[in-house]
Specification:
CATH architecture of the largest domain: 2-Layer Sandwich
CATH topology of the largest domain: Ribosomal Protein S5, domain 2
Distance between the termini: 34 Å
Largest sheet: 6 strands, mixed
Strand order of the largest sheet: 5-4-6-3-1-13
Number of domains: 2
Shape: globular
Helix content: 40-55%
Radius of gyration: 21 Å
Strand content: 15-25%
Structural class: alpha+beta
Order of helices and strands: HEEEEEHEHHHEEEHHHHHEEHEEH
CATH class of the largest domain: Alpha Beta
């Protein structure tokens, strides 16, 4: 059953009527530009056709009641009495907290939520949860949607409430994705440029089935190492160091810090080159850059694992694959491959079969379509009722 229909029927069962609105917020896959976002560099994500969906009815008071189909759990809280806890509820409460901190007046809602973004796979389920919550509050509290501002506030929620020191990329693409395009995002200015995939290609996500706990992982350690490198070069962030500057001074860096810096600086360069290749429709060049990105993440940033390395190396050997790499923060999760459209099905079957032979794990394969960012899925007949719900 499609998720939109599923949450609608569940809302009717729990709350006794149709929802007045449905919002969806997508996960994302990052084509290239990994661990560059918190260095104010360049990234190239696309919003995908896997999302968090919320069916809701606004309330006139401050009470939030939200039932999760996936977790079979209901949460209730008052937006003016937020207390930290654990689990998926923290994404909803964290966004409410960030909105309040920014001066928004919030009202509650009652709703049902479900999603098909794999948790912990590197497809940014957390940002999808956060932007879905922000969209729900925009409906219940009747404020205008500003994608860039909402992305910043959801990042603030994840940094300060959830406790993950993430950059802006995940929230930005989940807020502002564009159908049929990836977005080249300057993580300093937040300037965005829509860039199309080369024709006759598809993006395939390869889920290794291995997972990482981002809060407890080496993610924050990598970020600290980047900050050490930036101080060495006398800049705020590694975005401000060119390849030539790095090569001229690299020998003076402690070896581990040198490796971390080399990844970030070269990855920024690769991402800009990838955008140009996409504008030219050059799948071969884009694939080469994707391969180089994985090598850098594996060897210099050291955020891959055996399963990711195997699935990437095997994917790269398949007919019709231009290039593959790990995607997301790493330490497990997913790889992404750029594949000729007519080779997608045999490619997927072969990779799944060989990966299971090697690891004993059944990989999941997702053919990804680029979608819009967080949006309201609405029926015109519902909008007349919205005013009544807020009175």
């Amino acid at each position: 059953m499609p998720l939109e229909r599923h949450i609608t029927k569940e809302f009717e069962r729990i709350f006794g009527s149709d929802p007045l609105a449905i919002v969806r917020s997508p996960g994302r896959v990052n084509l290239i530009g990994e661990h560059t976002d918190y260095n104010e560099g360049f990234v190239m994500p696309m919003a995908i056709n896997r999302a968090i969906w919320i069916a809701l009815r606004p309330r006139s008071d401050y009470h939030v009641m939200l039932h999760s189909i996936d977790f079979n759990e209901r949460i209730e809280f008052m937006v003016h009495d937020l207390r930290k806890g654990a689990g998926w509820a923290e994404y909803i409460k964290g966004v409410a907290w960030a909105l309040l901190q920014s001066g928004f007046t919030l009202h509650g809602f009652e709703g049902v939520v479900a999603g098909d973004v794999p948790i912990g796979a590197g497809l940014s389920s957390s940002a999808a949860w956060e932007l879905a919550a922000a969209r729900a509050f925009s409906m219940s509290s009747n404020f205008n949607w500003d994608a860039q501002l909402m992305a910043r506030l959801c990042q603030f929620a994840e940094n300060q409430w959830v406790g993950v020191n993430c950059g802006i990329m995940d929230q930005m693409i989940s807020a502002a994705g564009k159908v049929d395009h990836a977005l080249l995002i300057d993580c300093r200015s937040l300037e965005m440029q829509a860039v199309p995939l080369p024709s006759d290609t598809v993006v395939i996500v390869l889920d290794t089935g291995t997972r990482r706990g981002l809060v407890d992982s080496a993610y924050n350690e990598r970020r600290s190492q980047c900050e050490v490198a930036a101080r060495f070069f006398g800049v705020k962030v590694l975005r401000d160091v060119t390849i030539d500057q790095f090569e001229a001074q690299a020998d003076h860096l402690e070896p581990l810090i040198r490796k971390r810096a080399r990844h970030v600086i070269s990855e920024n360069n690769r991402t800009l080159k990838a955008a140009e290749a996409m504008r030219q429709g050059d799948a071969v060049e884009l694939g080469k850059l994707i391969k180089l990105s994985h090598q850098s993440l594996r060897d210099d940033f050291e955020v891959s694992n055996h399963e990711l390395d195997f699935i990437v190396e095997y994917a790269d050997r398949q007919p019709g694959c231009y290039g593959a790499r790990m995607t997301g923060a790493g330490f497990g999760g997913c790889a992404v491959a750029l594949v000729q459209a007519d080779a997608a099905d045999p490619f997927s079957r072969q990779v799944v079969s060989e990966y299971q032979n090697e690891t004993g794990i059944a990989a999941q394969i997702y053919k990804c379509v680029a979608t819009n960012g967080a949006e309201i899925v609405k029926s015109p007949s519902l909008w007349d009722a919205m005013g009544e719900a807020r009175t």
